[in-house]
Each structure stands twice: as C-alpha cells, then as structure tokens.
Amino acid sequence: MPKMNMIQALNSAMDIMLGRDPSVVVMGEDVGYFGGVFRTTDGLQRKYGEQRVLDTPISEQGIVAAAIGMGVNGLRPVAEIQFADYIYPGYDQIVSELARIRYRSASEFHAPVTIRTPCGGGIRGGQTHSQSPEAIFAHVSGVKTVMPSNPYDAKGMLIAAIEDDDPVIFFEPKRVYNGPFDGNPDQPAVPWSAHPKGEVPEGYYTVPLGKAEIVRPGSACTIVAYGTMVYVAEAAARAQGVDAEIVDLRTIAPLDVDTLFTSVKKTGRCLIVHEATRFGGFGGELSATIQEECFWNLEAPIARVAGWDTPYPHAFEWEYFPGQRRVGAALKALMEAA
Amino acid sequence: MPKMNMIQALNSAMDIMLGRDPSVVVMGEDVGYFGGVFRTTDGLQRKYGEQRVLDTPISEQGIVAAAIGMGVNGLRPVAEIQFADYIYPGYDQIVSELARIRYRSASEFHAPVTIRTPCGGGIRGGQTHSQSPEAIFAHVSGVKTVMPSNPYDAKGMLIAAIEDDDPVIFFEPKRVYNGPFDGNPDQPAVPWSAHPKGEVPEGYYTVPLGKAEIVRPGSACTIVAYGTMVYVAEAAARAQGVDAEIVDLRTIAPLDVDTLFTSVKKTGRCLIVHEATRFGGFGGELSATIQEECFWNLEAPIARVAGWDTPYPHAFEWEYFPGQRRVGAALKALMEAA
Amino acid sequence: MAPRPRSRLHVPHPPARPGDPVDFSYVRTSPAGEMPRPEVAAPVATLAPLANELVRVLGDDHRAVGAWDPHLEPDVLQVGLRHMLLTRLFDERMQRTQRQGKISFYMRSLGEEAVSVAQAMALRPGDMLFPSYRNQGIYMVRGRPLVDLMCQLLSNTRDMCKGRQLPVMYHWKDGNIFSISGNLATQFPQAVGWAMAAAIKGQDDVACAWIGEGSSAEGDFHSAMIFAEVYNAPVILNVVNNQWAISTFQGFAGGEQATFAARGPGYGIPGIRVDGNDFLAVYAVTQWAAERARTGSGPTLIEHVTYRAAAHSTSDDPSRYRPKDEYERWPLGDPVERLKSHLVALGEWSEERHAALAKELEEHVTKSWKEATKFGTLTEGPKLDPDLMFEDVYKEMPPHLEKQRAQLRAELAAAAAERGAERG
Amino acid sequence: MAPRPRSRLHVPHPPARPGDPVDFSYVRTSPAGEMPRPEVAAPVATLAPLANELVRVLGDDHRAVGAWDPHLEPDVLQVGLRHMLLTRLFDERMQRTQRQGKISFYMRSLGEEAVSVAQAMALRPGDMLFPSYRNQGIYMVRGRPLVDLMCQLLSNTRDMCKGRQLPVMYHWKDGNIFSISGNLATQFPQAVGWAMAAAIKGQDDVACAWIGEGSSAEGDFHSAMIFAEVYNAPVILNVVNNQWAISTFQGFAGGEQATFAARGPGYGIPGIRVDGNDFLAVYAVTQWAAERARTGSGPTLIEHVTYRAAAHSTSDDPSRYRPKDEYERWPLGDPVERLKSHLVALGEWSEERHAALAKELEEHVTKSWKEATKFGTLTEGPKLDPDLMFEDVYKEMPPHLEKQRAQLRAELAAAAAERGAERG
Ligand SMILES: Cc1ncc(C[n+]2csc(CCOP(=O)(O)OP(=O)(O)O)c2C)c(N)n1
Ligand SMILES: Cc1ncc(C[n+]2csc(CCOP(=O)(O)OP(=O)(O)O)c2C)c(N)n1
Ligand SMILES: [Mg+2]
Ligand SMILES: [Mg+2]
C-alpha cells in the first residue's frame, strides 16, 4: 500500500475526483498555479487546467458565494479557505445560503459544495492561524461538518464529501498534515509513513461521513476526540496507563451518537477533548448528549479538556495547547472520581 | 413606578445614556429619522441630533467595523443590527476584531461597542426573522453576550452594556417586546403593564451583566432559560404543577455559574430551555458545565428543550417553537426519572 | 478671515420628509433618444457616459426614439403591457388579502414593474434569474401560474416552499428562477458563480441578478463585481435604484456623489444607467448586456432609476418618512402608463382595450385566488404536514431529525388527544 | 463565416511565470510632472484623470518636476531617506534572524518603503494610522525604538503584545498606530469609523489606512468606501498595489480592466494613482489627501503602484510563481535609490554620506538587537509569564478565566516538579 501524508492524501482525493467527475472544480486563494500554501492542490491545475482548478480573488465571501452559484449550476466545487481563521467573511454565505438553499426551495435547488479549510494550532501560527471554529458550524442545520485525523480518513472522507449532495465543511487539522502529533513538541516528529493510517490506497475509496471510529478499544473510560487531539489522547492514556477507549469522532455533524453511547455505556466514564476554546465549544454538545443518554451508566461526571477561553496566543503555544499533561490530569481525575 | 414595555425600556436606556455621556452614539439601519423598524430608537435622533443618532448604509459588516473605529476613537457606539438573522455579515468584524482588539494590543486599544439585535421567533417572521444565534457568540472569547427577558432588565442591562468597556452582544427577544409570552399564541396577549417587570424607573440604573436571576424559587427542579423561554418555562411548570426553580440566565457569557450550581445542587434536577436549534446550541454548554459540577447531586439526567434542528419554518411556527407542551413533557419526564 | 473649513460628519438628507414639498431635482435625467448605443464589444473605457447619463427611449410624446430603440413589434409590447399590468393587479390583490389577514406578509413592486418584465422578456428562457423580493414580474413573464405563487403566499398544501419561507420568497427550478433569500445581497455573487459555471461548461446561457440600491452597500455587491470582472463572467448585475430602502433614501447607499452605475467602470465593468420606468429602454439595455455576456464580452452593471411607489412591505408605513405625494411627482412617471401611452400613440392600443385587459386580468387573479385557497389558507382548510419541517434540511434525513420528527408527532398526537378529550 | 463568439471563463495570467521573460508592459506609467494638481476642494467629477494616469514627481534625471512637487527641504528628504533605509536594513536583519530560528516569522517591505515613510511623514502625529503588516516604515517615522519592535518580534518579556501576536503585528497607542490584524482588510472600514468619530467630535485629525491590492477584494473594502462616501469621512484609504498577493498577481484582485484607483470615482471618492516608489509623489498626494480630509472635502483613495520585491513572508518562496529577476526590471525602480539619486542630484547627498548613514543604521540595528534579546528570545532568556495569556481578554478577568489560570499554574507547577525530580 502506498504511504501518503495527509496533504498527499487530500491531493489524491481531489485528483481522483477531478478525474472521475467533470463537474468537480477546485478553487481558492493560491490553490491554482501555486498549488496552495500548504501545497495541498499541487499539480492539479497543471493536470486539469485552469477552468477546473481556479485561483480566486482574496474574498472568502466571494469564494463561498461563487461556489454556491456553481453548485446550483451543476458543478461540484471544492473550495479552499486558506485558514479556518479566515472563514468568517464567508460565514453569512455559509449559514444563510449554502445551508439553507435545499430547505427553502424544497430541494428544487441545492449546492453540493465542499469547503476545505486547515484548522487548529501547534504550528506557531498565532491567533489568526490556529483557530478551531467547528462549533459554529456544528450549530448550523443544513451543513455537515467533519474533521478527519489521518491520511486514510482524509482521502476517503474528502471523496465522500465531494460526492455528497449536501454541503460539507471539511476541517483539516494542519498540525497532523505531516504526521501524528502527540502533543509533545520536543519529541522528534513522527511521519505518516510510520503510522498505519498513512497507508492510503492510490485509487478511489470513500470513508462514510457520519461515522466515528474507535481507534483504540478499551474498557476503563471513553475518550472522545477529533483531529490532532486523537493522538494527544492516545499518548495521555498510554502515559497514565489507563485502558481508555478512544473514539475519533471524524464527523462532528451529524453526530454518530450510536458509537458514543455504546462506548460510554460500556465504560461508564467519559472524557471529551478538543482544541477549540472550551466555553460554548462542541464539547458541550457532546457532553450534554452523552449525559442525556448514558446518565445511569456514568460513574463519574463527564469531563472536558479544551483550549483555554482566550485567543490563541503566539508565545504561549504550548501552555495554551491542551497537551498530554492536561489531558492526562483530566484522565486521572476522571478515573479517580467515584 | 412608570410602566414600560421592552421597547420603551430600551429606548429609555439609550435616551439616558445619550444624555449622560456625550461619547455615546446610536447607529444602525433605519434607526435615525425613522426610529427603527421596531421603533426602539424612536425620537432619539430628534432629541440628540444626527451626529449622535445615525442612520447607516445596509452593511452589517460596515456597521460593526465603523462602530469599532468609533470605539477606538473614544466613542461608545450602540449599534443596531435590524434582526439577529442579519448579523452574519458582521460576524468576522465581531470575532476577528471587536473581540480581539483589547487582547492583541495588550489593552492599549479597546472598542466599547454594544451591538443590539432583536432575536427569536414566534412572530411569523420565517427563517430570516426568527433566529437565535447566541451560541455562536457565546463561543467567542472577548465579547460578552446577554439576553434580557423583560423591560426592567432590558433597560438596566443596556445601560450596563453601554457603560461596559468590553464589547457586548445584546440580544433582544422580540417576541416579548410588548409583553411576556407564555408560548400559547391563542391566549390574549398580556402587556408589560400587567407584569411587575414592566415597572421601570424613569432614570438611570443598572442591572449588572454576568448575573442570572432566580425568577421563581422552587425545590423540585431547576429550569434554566433565557429570553422568551423564561415565560414558557414558568407556564409549563405551573401547568405541570411542578415546584420548579426558574433561573433567568440574562447573561450568556460570562456565565453566572454560581447561581446555576447552587440551584441545581439544591433541586437535583435540571431542565434547560432555549429557542435556538438544539444541536451545538448553548444548552450543551449549560448542561456540560452543570453536570461537571453537580453530577453527584443529580437525581436524573439534565434535559434540554430547544428549537428543532431545522431552519425556522414560516408555516410551522407553533410546531417549531418549543412551547408549553414540549417544555411540559420534558419537565414531566425529568420529574419522573429516577 | 473666514474660518478654515473643517471636517464634519456629513449626514445624507433626502430631498423631502413628510410635510416638505417634493423635490426630485437631484434625479439627473437625459432626453429620450440622446444616448448613443455602443457596440457590445466596445472597450469598457469608451462606455463611461452610459454610467452617468440616462438611457431613455420613450419620449414625452410617447414615441420611441434613438439608437436604443429595440424596435419591438406591437404584439411584443402588448405582451409586456399585459405582464406589467398583471403584476400590478396581482400585487394589489395580495396586498388586500394581507390586510384581511389571509396571508402573513406581502411586498409590492408598484412602480417598478418594467424592470422585471422588460428584463425577463429580453432574456432567453435558459438564462438563469436571481431575483430579489421585488421582482415578481419575472414570474409573470416566465409563465408561472398565479395559483402557484398564491399557494406560496398562503403557505398552503401546494406551497412550492412547503411552508418554509415567508411569503414572496418564491423559486422555480424549471423556470430557471432561483430561490429568493431574506438575506439581502447574498445572491448577487452567487449569480456570478452560476455564470462562471456556465462559462466553464461552455453553456450559452447568462445569469441575471437584481439587488436594491440600499442592499448594494453590502459586501456581497463587491464580491460579485470582483468575481465578475476577474473571470469575465456572463452575468447581468442589476441595481434597482428605487430611491428608498425602507426609510433611508439612496444617499445612504452612496448615491449622493455618484450614480450606482458608475461603480461598474471602477471595476472595469460597463455601467449603464437606465430609465427604469421606460419599458423599451430597460428592454434594450438588457438585450445589449445579454448579448455582451453571451458573446464573451463579460458582465454589465445596470442601474435602473425607478421609484418604490408602494410601502416597503405590509409591515411598513412610508408616510412616516417621506412625503405622501412623492410618487405623483416622480419625474420618470409610471411604467404601465408610459408603455400604454406608447402603444396608443402607435395606434396599437386604446383605453377600451386597456380596460378590457384589466378586467380580464382581474378576473384571472380572482379565479386564481379561489383556486389557491382551496389548498388552504393561514387560518382555514387543509394544512401542510408538519413532518415536512424535517425534510430537505439534508438530502437524506439524519437520525437526530428522525428522532425530533417522532417527538413532534407524539406532541401533536397528545395535543389532538387532549382536544378530543375536551370536546368529547 | 466565423463562429459566433461565446462566453468562456477568463483566467487572469500574470505577464510572466518562472522561466518566462519579465514583461511589465501592462504597467501604464506617465512621465514625471505631467499630471496637474487640482485644488483639494475640486469636485470629484473633475478628478477622474488622477485615477487612471500616474502621479510622478521624480523624473529619470532625478529632478523633481511638475505641480505635484511638494518642494520639501533637503533636510526633510534626508530624513525620509534615513527612515526608508532604516526600514530596509531592519527588514534585512530581521529576515536573517528568522532564518537563524530566532524569531518565528517575518515580513519585509522591500521595495515599498516609500509608501509608509512618505505617507507617515506627510501626516501629522495626531493622525491615526491603520497599517497592514507591510507598513513598518511608519514606525520608523513616528520614532518607535527598534528595540520595542524587536521585542515584539521575539515575543519576549518586553513584547508590547505580551506574547499574543505573531511577529510584525505591532501596535502603538501613543504613536497613534492601530493594532495590526492577521485578518486581511478588516481595518479599512474601521479607519473610516475612526474618522467618522473624529468628524463627530470635531477633531482635526484624519485617519489613514492601508490595504494590499489583493486584500482589496474583500467585502471590507466596499464597506469602507461606502461609509467613507456616505459620511464624507476624513480618511485616506490606500491600496498598495505591489503586483502580488502571495502567488496571485494583481489581475486576480480585479486589476486587469481598471486601476485600483479607478474604484474611487465609482463611489464618488477621488482616486489617485501614484508612483509608489517615488517618495516625493507619495508625499505630495498624501499631503493633498490629508488636506482634503482635514478641510472637510472628505475621503481619498490612493493606489500606490509598487512592487513586492521580497517574498510574501518568511514562509514563502516566490521563485515558485514569478521570474526571479522581476524586481530588477520593475519599471518604477527602487524607492531608496531614487530618493538618494535625487538628493545627490540636488547636491545634498553623496555616496560617502550614504555609506556612512547605512553604517550608522546598521550599527543601530545591531545595538538594538543586542538590547532586545536581553529581554529574551524564542529559545533563551527570560520568558513572559503565562498568566498573561488570561489577561486582557476582558477588562476584568471573569471567574472562568481565573479558574483556567489556576489550572494552568498547577499544570506548570507539576511539570516543573517533574523536571526537578528528573534532574534531582
Ligand atoms: C442582510 C440584511 N440586512 C438587513 C435586512 C432588512 N431589510 C430588508 S429589506 C431592507 C431594505 C432594502 O432596500 P433596497 O435594497 O433598496 O431594496 P428595496 O426594498 O428598495 O427594493 C432591509 C434593510 C435584510 N433583509 N438583510
Ligand atoms: C481574511 C484573510 N484571508 C486570507 C488571508 C491569507 N493571506 C495573508 S496575506 C495574503 C495575501 C495578501 O496580498 P495583498 O493584499 O496584495 O498584500 P501584500 O502581501 O502584497 O502586501 C493572504 C491571502 C488572510 N490573512 N486573511
Ligand atoms: Mg431600494
Ligand atoms: Mg499585494
């Protein structure tokens, strides 16, 4: 099986879809000739031409709106927002339009747009290159919101997203573009080639949206995580010697409640981990939902570890980042509670 | 004590602040000569002149941005967004700028902007005049988010918001502009003049931000609500004959956890009610937070009642609205759980 | 010595407020027939005058003059008159039904009918329209039965929107008319995206979008212009300058110092300022813009100078912010009257025929309304199934919505049972 | 018969990509001294040519010519030269320190120094500046010690941003320079709001904002223009057209069909296109625009035609998308060299003096760096207190942040204890 990092896997997904489906177009700031600031669209314009892989003006509002119009006219746009921190100018077009067109037109119109955007911190990007705004999309009925954590899922889910007739907000945790990251910046970087999820088929396959994955079975507690935090959680569980079951959520909305409920009912304890700021973050929804269903199985309060409720500060990257120590401490407390 | 409805109370708050503080300016679409589509700013331009009470172009982005610039230059803008459904074009300016200026400049700069906006449904407004987007602001560190539910609080909190040196997103549940609404559209409307919270002092006073209020003490369970839902919750509790303690949250962020925790520890049961769509809504944060602190006191899972996870549909207003029946059923289930 | 001038906040003032004498001296007009009609492929730089003057075809003597005369056959003009009149009568009736509490909300296009009707007629059926809420005339031109529009207004069991949208927020896939949004301006750049896709696919169709002059202050306007220019998209971008945006006049949208059409050349896009109440002129500039778009010369920005004769909506009372008699003194007249007079001048129309047409259309409206109300009204008759609320949020219903649907069903069943118990 | 032309998606192409011969024929220039200088109160309509031609003062013979010559004293020019050179040397050094891993990120303004320096010099200290990330020259003019800028770059214990911002995102309240945002374009309309407040308060100060030509595609640009026009705000809005926005050239921002300055007149705002590498021309148009704003004639849009000679940032490699030798062939030359040559031509400067100045400034930079690093670097020396992370989110720290701060303190204490245990 070929080895790919996440960038290559995403590139391969777009390559395959551009090849299979003439209605697929790729667009965004610097994605064309240059191949994207993270090189995710490298080579695609050369291969598919300028009418299929478009550089755009610097206008996230315009990018989303144009993609909607294209989608309504039968194309399947895959639009890149260069950083998730810059998606806000397109937020109105996403919430008021992209998410609503099917509903308000009773399915006469729809726009099958995929919006790819790198998110998350840990790359010394400061407050405007590190945000994780998934919660503000999770709350919006009409869009699906996903965040794969590894090359295999990234490719399969991106293909699924492009093929999906509903709009998908596709978050890419950029800290794990090149390899899994366990939260310790001082350790040597691990490449995807050394990880089973770096084995990625060359060809077409999909990973269904709406399905979480148990990336590590366990019985002592459930850790719900997504994106980079999956690896931090794994490392923390290992370090604490806790037999945690780790659920990689993969899709944030619609949520795979079955996997969550089954796991928490089994383990009786649950820790939720995300990079986004805690207050009003998606962890609240996870905790509330799990609690509603699994209350009688819970042996301890559901706990959350998340980014502090501050903007992402450049100099305090590792004090800010919910790393192994913070996750570990929460895990310990979770296991001790009773 | 004079009687005021919520519109009059809000108008009085702005009137007083325009009078007391020459740096206060009021601005927004149709707020000047016309006095606002809900007449909330009626008479203010006549009284304070066009340099203090400004009509603006139809650009929510521009309104927020201009208010920020004015705030940085020493004014205290009170900007109206005509409907909360139209706040999204200004979302980037709120999240990336208004909420961040103090932090990133280490308090050298700040913009004491208040953004007033009518929210919520129940007025046959359809999907673009009924939304309750408080959750997407609650998640943003650096802004305060509030929603008073009655004239007395509306006036006192608006004055407090204008005087606050931090930016405040001030949601006005428009369904209760004219009177408390218990969720039953077939009942004759009750005016604020018939309600104690319709007694509003003429002059200056504040109701502090960040403080919830127990609007009905009780011992059987705690209902956490805000805006219109406070009255629906009251009516449902009455109808069910449940001795519920009802907390009117008033401020969404920062959250008055002490009042919540004390109440839920006392009652052992908790129901959260909001109009906004359920998934990813603010109820998740409330539930998670309360559960974390009060887990050992809980006699039943914390329950949520909220808007369905669909856009707000024009024809199904009352099937959509989380009314007495839905709240009542949840309350019943909550009380029966054990 | 005079004091040094100083900066002060300028606050735009409409020429007149309630009680003031009407003053339209700010509306710059040109005599009919005066503007040259450039080649569609002419370089943008040569088109500047179009953005500042006013393209007019119908003169005060009701004759068509000048290079912009589209030379339409009388039967085409009669069709145009019929569509405009139908739009107006439909609007009037719906306004009344709202006053009677039979629909929840309505928005008329009184005084602006030529914009929608002439433009839709000048386009091909395959061209995609992105209307605002004041473009109902395009539905008349494209032939959507009134009953269908009325059922939408009634949110009844035949509502094309399945009860999900406010009245007037129509859509029509088969008629190539996009769904109207309550959020202003959002569809302007979407139309550009549609046109970009047409160009990518080698389609021969163009997109046409409308925005109010007030709404043109939104960032979406800029996004549309930028994308249209950069990709030379086959799109017609219309700013309907009807002087008012609820209570604020066009000066609050930036109309004091420049025309709205003038923004076009700033982006390298031709801008045309047209007499929006002149059916022939609107038709002609639309034809010209469509031809430009279709033949690869790219986008055009059209400013329609017209007047919102009606209230903003049924929730609005314009007498609070403008003189009652403004419309009577509006210098560009009434589009229906002007086309009618033109046809009369041509010997192709008469008061009698006009009265007969009005009667016929009135009856059509009445009949349609009767038909529509059979499918239910706000207060009576059959109702949409609330289950529909949960459909079309996604293509396939996700489990959490299924669950909520079940919950609502239970809730409604309980309510019905209770009512039954009460009655029984 | 030739096939009928059809619409197709136009895709802007830069004149040259890596390997291609450089081609700047698209850059329209005018001879120095040719443009007339209108009165500041002249009606906007009469100012159109300013938006399309190019205001230049310094001729090829290095003499200042024409109506726009600001007639500055040689000592003022020397100060300008000093600030530009300091900006350049500072940039070079910081670029190197980034390469050495001592700061995390840097952005140079190479080739564009005249824009910031001449503009800041033409304004008054009380005028409020809203810079982008490529306007460091304004800090030189307003006299912020280099040490302070360096401490920001180092996120060290003297960092004005308390470690919260990426390098180059400075701010300076006392210097009337607003905080830079990583989000493009957002500050353009904020500057207008600031200016509106100035007008409301009767302040005599103007606001001045900068945006890249690429960023001018954002909706904020439009919001700024609309609000500036509607309220006649005392603001100078600058588009720095340095031809590139990371890898996309100015055609992707709408620069193919019209100049960026031309957007001004579309809004009824004068637009001036100026040779951005001509210190005197930039100074003169800024003076003109400031005078307009200050005396109540309202906003001005200035397009600075310049070239981003450096990489976009230290994360960028421009050889992937443009010819290596583009800058060498840039028709408007180098702003530092041009001002230097002008001074030499005036007999007010020499190679010797220039070398001495460069040496002095180099030493100043070196000394400042030594000083700055005393307060800590990324990897060494004192560190900011992580407690600071929780401050300034709000004016007063709310309880949940106090709690999180306590949690972090415990976390760090545990880590320290562990490290102690390991060591011990
Ligand atoms: C984004 C947004 N902001 C505000 C509104 C409220 N609103 C509805 S119509 C309107 C006025 C629009 O005026 P104009 O664009 O001139 O169109 P007209 O009504 O004159 O046809 C306003 C402010 C809205 N619907 N959407
Ligand atoms: C809203 C937003 N979108 C995208 C970016 C990413 N980005 C940073 S700089 C840049 C290019 C800006 O080019 P230009 O405006 O021409 O300024 P220049 O770098 O040439 O000075 C881009 C796309 C951003 N910072 N903010
Ligand atoms: Mg209008
Ligand atoms: Mg640039």
Q: How would you sum up the global shape of chain C?
A: globular
The fourth-level CATH homologous superfamily of the largest domain in chain A is Thiamin diphosphate (ThDP)-binding fold, Pyr/PP domains
CATH topology term of the largest domain in chain C: Rossmann fold
What is the N-to-C order of secondary-structure elements of chain A (H for helix, E for strand)? HEHEHEHHEHEHEEEHEEHEHEHH
Number of strands of chain C: 7
The biggest beta sheet of chain A reads: 7 strands, mixed
The most extensive interface, with participating residues per chain, is: C-D, 55 and 56 residues
Separation of the first and last Cα atoms of chain C: 92 Å
E-strand count of chain A: 12
CATH class of the largest domain in chain A: Alpha Beta
CATH superfamily of the largest domain in chain C: Thiamin diphosphate (ThDP)-binding fold, Pyr/PP domains
Going by helix content, strand content and strand pairing, the class of chain C is alpha/beta
So, CATH architecture of the largest domain in chain A? Answer: 3-Layer(aba) Sandwich
CATH topology of the largest domain in chain A: Rossmann fold
Count of separate DSSP helical elements of chain C? 12
Bound molecules: thiamine diphosphate, magnesium ion
Q: Which strand order do you get reading across the main beta sheet of chain C?
A: 1-2-3-7-6
Radius of gyration of chain A: 19 Å
Mind telling me the C-alpha Rg of chain C? 23 Å
How many strands, which pairing sense, and closed or not: the largest β-sheet of chain C?
Answer: 5 strands, parallel
Overview of this protein structure:
The complex is a heterotetramer, with two copies of chain A (338 residues) and two copies of chain C (424 residues). Chain A is of the alpha/beta class. Chain A folds into two domains: 6-198, Thiamin diphosphate (ThDP)-binding fold, Pyr/PP domains (Rossmann fold); 213-336, Rossmann fold. Chain A has twelve helices and twelve strands. Chain A has a seven-stranded mixed β-sheet with strand order 2-1-3-4-6-5-10, sandwiched between helices. In chain A, strand 1 (24-28), helix 2 (44-48) and strand 2 form a beta-alpha-beta unit. In chain A, helix 3 runs parallel beside helix 4, helix 8 packs across helix 12 and helix 9 (257-267) crosses helix 10. Chain A starts with 5 loop residues before the first helix and ends with a helix. The mean pLDDT of chain A is 97. By secondary structure, chain C is of the alpha/beta class. Chain C has two domains: 44-375, Rossmann fold (3-Layer(aba) Sandwich); 386-423. Helix content of chain C is 38%, strand content 7%. Chain C has a five-stranded parallel β-sheet with strand order 1-2-3-7-6, sandwiched between helices. In chain C, strands 4-5 form a two-stranded antiparallel ribbon. In chain C, helix 5 packs across helix 11. The chains are: A alpha/beta (338), C alpha/beta (424). Chains in contact: A-B, A-C, A-D, B-C, B-D, C-D. Chains C and D meet through helix 6, helix 7 and helix 8 of C and helix 6, helix 7 and helix 8 of D. The complex binds thiamine diphosphate (2 copies) and magnesium ion (2 copies). One thiamine diphosphate sits between chains D (134, 182-184, 212-215, 242, 244-246, 308, 312) and A (29, 58, 60, 82, 86, 89).
